[in-house]
Amino acid sequence: MSSQLPALQLVIPLLSAPLCFLIGKARIAWAIATLASWACAAIAVTLLLRVNDGSVIEYAFGNWPGPWGIVYTIDRLNAFVLVIVSGIAAVILPYSWPSVCREIPPRLHVLFYTALLLCLSGLLGMTITGDAFNLFVLLEISSLSTYTLISLGKDRRSLTAAFQYLVMGTIGGTFILIGVGLLYMLTGTLNMADLAHRLQPLEGSRTLQAAFAFLVVGFGLKLAMFPLHLWLPNAYATAPSVVSAFLAATATKVAVYAMLRFLFGIFGADFTYNQMHLQFLLVPLALMAILFASMTAVYQRGVKRMLAYSSLAQIGYMLLGIGLANLHGLMATLLHLFNHALIKGALFLVMANIFYRAGGTAINHVTGLGRQMPWSMAAFVAGGLSLIGVPLTVGFISKWYLIQASIDRGWWLITAMILLGSLIALVYIWRVVEAAYFKERPPDQPTVTEVPLWLLIPTWVLILGNIWFGMNAEFTAGVAEAAAATLLGER
Fold it and tell me: Which candidate in 128, 232, 239, 293 could, as Cys together with 150 as Cys, close a disulfide (CB 3.0–4.6 Å)?
């Protein structure tokens, strides 16, 4: 059975989704989805421990080895991302039942769990596959289910947000498909390892350069790279709270990983940096994302929308790490995939707690909750400190390596802008803290109490993760450093 773990990583949630739909009972669907997520998390951790010594696991479907058949390849990098995605799902799905009951009509509960499992399947499959076209197919599975999940929001604007994401996501998927098609036309293969080998003598090809451009733009749309980000604020702000937490912690991270796999695993660092000069595109766009998205977050009245714009800034930090084109920069990007998942997963679960009691997540709903929901608001403060980058939190670890990368390049202005982004984050986090702790509850808002324990536990699991991995970063930093060195061809 242990030899089948790579296949089971995808098969378990993929088969659980139709099972939930066929059974048609909401509580049973929730139980199946929860058990499936726990199984995926256990498999992901097992795979990471197996490959953490630098080994690589290959699983050939039907015993057809690559490049003839579809092969799943597990190394330190994608095992790390598997742990992020499945771990977040394992925490959020037990939490989801009371939150879903409050925000989604009962007739749609089974559809919700079916779509969430399909989304999880697509994200895990994108991470583990070694076939470029298979990655596109799994990307579409996750995208189509994401559109459905966003549209289930209580606010009617969620339908508009889902449609907007559908349009932009379809454009992004089309660009990715064109890029993959051009690579296939050049090489006659879709296996990623074989592609990397066959592209080496073709580095001067205009077709190869066009494929590179299509893929960068396509993945840029999927990961909400500035200025291709217009779908994200509305999607995160209007989706059901559990969906916002899951997507903010996983979807954009997998898109960043997929782009990294193409940039470094297929095209190679030399082609990416020295021939296509991608750093000259990524660095300015990343800095604009960090500053403009952070400043926009300051003026938001809805806290979920504020956190959505904050996510755009955090994506900017990840892209900046890629653009810095050195080991510490790429290491910071990989670390922030994990760290930001912990941060945003926790903060959006706090928003789900507030919605559960107050019926909304605008600033006026949060005002005065410091005394009425002390544990939830304490979790927001801790998550906010991590988002700012205060020492002893995971946010500090990411920014420390990012600053070190900018210093290594001698780009002191970028160092200053990273620090400025953190100061702006302090401003918009403080707005919420000030409203919760230093203002009285508005007369038009009901008096509320703390959420039940089964909602607090998953929230605080992620918050404690923010603190634990901020104080004990040896393992995550070690995995990120080894994976970054492999991507850059230094190992």
Answer: 239
449: left (phi over 0), alpha (psi -120 to 50) or beta: beta
Answer left, alpha or beta for residue 188, where phi above 0 means left and psi between -120 and 50 means alpha: left
pTM for this prediction = 0.91
Report the b/e string of 267-285 with b at 16+ CB within 10 A. bbbebbbeebebbebbbeb
Residue position matching structure tokens 């990623």: 192
Task: Give the closest residue to 452 by CA, choosing from 97, 77, 121, 18.
Answer: 97
pLDDT in tens, 258-277: 999 999 988 888 888 888 88
362, β-bridge pairs: 302
2 DSSP assignment: G
Beta-carbon count within 10 A of 438 CB: 10
Alpha-carbon dihedral angle through residues 281, 282, 286, 289, given to the nearest 10 degrees = 50
The answer as to whether 418 is a domain residue is: yes
Query: Is 410 buried (19+), middle (13-18) or exposed (0-12) by CB count in 10 A?
Result: exposed
Number of domains in the chain: 1
Q: 386 or 201, which is more confident?
A: 386
Task: Please indicate, yes or no, if residue 71 is contained in any of the structural domains.
Answer: no
Residues 199 and 266: beta-carbon distance below 8 Å:
yes
DSSP-based three-state secondary structure for 382: helix
